[in-house]
Amino acid sequence: MTLRNDQYDLIMREYSRRQNAGHSILEERRAETYALIPRLSGIDREISGLFKDQIRQKLLSDIPPDTAALQAKTRALEEERTALLVSNGFPADYLEVPCVCPLCHDTGYMEDGRKCRCFRRLEIDLLYRQDELNEILSKENFDTFSFEWYSDTIKDEATGRTSLDLAKSAYNASREFAEHFDDDFSSLFFFGDTGVGKTFLSHCIAAELLGTMHSVLYFSAYELFDRLAAGTFSDAQDSISDNIIADCDLLIIDDLGTELTNAFVSSQLFLCVDQRLKRRKPTVISTNLSLKNFSDTYSERTFSRIASAYRMCKLTGKDIRIQKKFNGGN
Ligand SMILES: [Zn+2]
């Protein structure tokens, strides 16, 4: 994905804004804590004095400064500051610059010069306007999910399990998926009727991973294939392997089966699933098609890739509470 200069500038401005916001918060916290614990301002002055001494020694003297001694002094002062903060009921890191992304401290770049994953996320927000998604995620996340929507008496004929039982399995799979996202490569496939919570669970996962600064691309199947047909994701090469679809931390394709299926869609879905598996990039797919229909619609080879590598989660429910929750009461 190539950003235009003005788009790059926009992202870098966002980082400056975050850094400035962090420093303003720090100033407020200093004023607050210095008033309560006067010794803190002395400590901060001594730390910055030590830092200046070090610079001065470097500039004025031929003898290299005793860095180890200066560091030890600084560390002792920092420990005293932490102890004072904690004993007065403040968090230990209260006087460190707060940042949105702890990985890059809101600079956008890692120490080795690579772009941070939060940079990728800002690119996605900028290029694919996922702001509406952020709005939805504030309402639909693991904290707002409820098992009360599911019946513990109505059983699914195929599996013999109740809606509630299936919902618990799908929920646990989603939580595990999000919790072990960085250390355990897996993908999820939600299937079941319309309005049984598949999209809600996808939202829960997206919310969780966006919260940990991952780049998440969320599309309805209709929008995804529409964009693929229009070549939105292609840079110079007209290939799915070189674009953000194959490369983002998590791709979520919602409502597969509702788009107009044709040979193009079918081949693109295969490429997408295949490329992401090869790159060990997790994907979440939801569909209201049955497994048999899915295979018939998108080809046997796509289905077998999914069946072999994705965790399959079925959801059911004809319960009125679910209908009300997910279909607006209709
Ligand atoms: Zn970052």
What brief labels describe this structure?
binds zinc ion; 330 residues; elongated; five-stranded parallel β-sheet; 13 helices; Rossmann fold; 2 domains; 5 strands; alpha/beta
Looking at the overall shape, the CATH architecture of the largest domain is 3-Layer(aba) Sandwich
- The strand line-up of the biggest sheet is 2-3-4-1-5
Radius of gyration: 26 Å
Strand content: 5-15%
**What fold name stands as the CATH topology of the largest domain?**
Rossmann fold
The mean pLDDT is 87
Instruction: List the helices and strands in order.
Output: HHHHHHEHEHHEHEHHEH
Please report the distance between the alpha carbons of the first and last residues: 42 Å
* Strand tally: 5
Q: Which structural class should the secondary elements be placed in? A: alpha/beta
Low-pLDDT segments = none
Contiguous helical run count: 13
Bound molecules: zinc ion
Helix content: 40-55%
CATH class of the largest domain: Alpha Beta
Main sheet overview: 5 strands, parallel
Number of domains: 2
Specify the CATH homologous superfamily of the largest domain.
P-loop containing nucleotide triphosphate hydrolases
Q: Outline, from the CA principal axes?
A: elongated
Describe the fold and architecture.
The protein is of the alpha/beta class and 330 residues long. It has two domains: 5-87, no CATH class; 129-327, P-loop containing nucleotide triphosphate hydrolases (Rossmann fold). It has helices at residues 5-36, 39-60, 67-87, 117-128, 131-137, 163-179, 198-211, 221-230, 244-247, 263-278, 291-298, 300-309, 320-327, and strands at residues 187-191, 216-220, 250-256, 283-287, 310-314. It has a five-stranded parallel beta sheet with strand order 2-3-4-1-5, with helices on both faces. Strand 3, helix 10 (263-278) and strand 4 (283-287) form a beta-alpha-beta unit. Helix 2 (39-60) packs antiparallel against helix 3, helix 6 (163-179) runs parallel beside helix 7 (198-211) and helix 11 (291-298) packs across helix 12. Bound molecules: zinc ion. Zinc ion is lined by residues 101, 103-104, 116, 118, 213.
